[in-house]
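All the exercises in this workshop are built on plain-text protein records. Sequence and backbone structure share a record, each on its own labelled line. The question running through the whole workshop is how a given chain folds. The record below serves as our worked example for the rest of this section.
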Amino acid sequence: MASLVQEFTKGLWKEIPPFRLVLGICPTLAVTTTANNGLGMGAAVIFVLALSNVIISLVRNIIPKKVRIVCFIAIAASLVVAVEMLMQAFAYGLYQQLGIFVPLIVVNCIILGRAEAFAGKNPPLLSLADGLGMGIGFTVSLTFLGAIREVLGAGTLFDVSLFGPDFHPFTFMVQAPGAFVCLGLILAGMNYLNIWQAKRKGIELDPNFDSGCSGCGACQAMNKMAAAKKLERLEPAKG
């Protein structure tokens, strides 16, 4: 039970996709002009991520390793088609606003990343908890970013006016540069919070490896490879 809770909650803060793992940045920047768009895209990702994780976990032992990525994409694509049809039937206006980013869920880094790193190696129940946690974390991130941009850029929140007629919106915030500025400020704030929390606990953070990307490990691997090559060059010289 504790393991289920841990796998679910890690995606809500510790490994929240856009702000910690820095995954799914394309839709995060593109569709978050309003909180509604962020919530809609996030809900679609929850559906695809949770179900794809469970299906991949169920069939992981019968998928040949050489074609596993193709199989993962095929499973995700089938679920995305279902999401598109549901959105066209019940939320056509939102579907039009999200545009090409709905079908692009198929190749979203979060979907393929969780399939390869987690669902392909763990049982269905844990994979479901992982998918739901990551999906909800992604949804909260998009909705939060969309809310900030909508409030500052249009003076509304979920299409409800918040200010009087004298309010002059910062239209910059609902344009592409505004998305980068907002995301950068949020990432900076979370990094500062990490450092502050670590100092309170007496922990010294390595800025290269403790910036919230623990789910990747690519930096550590590259550093070890560089150290190994350096050692190989030094050994002949000693001989």
Remarks:
- The beta strands are 156-157, 160-161.
- The CA atoms of residues 195 and 207 lie 9 Å apart.
